[in-house]
Amino acid sequence: MFLRRSISLLATLLFSCPLLAGQLTPEQQAAKEKGIVLYNQHKNAEPYLIIAAEAGDRESQYYLGEELRRSSRFMTEEAYKWYVAAAEQGDYYAMYRLSGTGSDLCSAMGNCPPDHRTPGDSLLLGRKTAHALAEKGDSEAMYVLYYLTNDFEWLEKSADAGYAPAQYLLASRYQEGKGFFSPPP
Fold it and tell me: What is the largest CA-CA distance in the chain?
């Protein structure tokens, strides 16, 4: 009886604690939302994003990496750290960003730490992750696959699946003369 109560109490504590259950507290969620709004307004979002990023929120980690990279105008060690944290949780945007880090200092000098993922590794992982989701019909993953593979067909599939950013980009590409579009009768 005592053992059953102890296990029940432990399970309740584990699953009710937002940090252990992978959820943000209301304060962390508010900081995340404010940080993303500020990021999109090209204002300093770092103080807000770091609150949710440190709590383990994948989206906040990605946006914090973007904020740090954008404010420095190059990939910093700190930005790289947050991209890696997001990528390790399956964020294919972070994987895409990491796939373009071939000219970072440790790659150029050949002295990266042993656990350093190469840009090629990040690209392959991003393709694998996004492809698995695209096969299930995730239109945003199809959009990311366009960038990860340079395969125009993924952009068309994403737009056909209704993903608005893909529809906009596809229309822009058609206007530039890429691909072929025939209007419905």
Answer: 73
Instruction: Single out the residue of 126, 106, 128, 105 nearest to residue 116, CA to CA.
Output: 106
Per-residue pLDDT band at 80 (split at 50, 70, 90): confident
Distances (CA, A) of 163 to 84, 96, 119, 169: 26, 19, 27, 10
Backbone φ and ψ for 103, nearest 5 degrees, come out as: -100, 15
Cα separation, 119 vs 127, in Å, equals: 12
Q: Supply the pTM of this predicted model.
A: 0.67
DSSP letters spanning 82-124: HHHHHHHTT-HHHHHHHTT-TTSHHHHHT---TTPPPHHHHHH
42: left (phi over 0), alpha (psi -120 to 50) or beta: left
Q: Given phi > 0 = left and psi -120 to 50 = alpha, else beta, which region is 105?
A: alpha
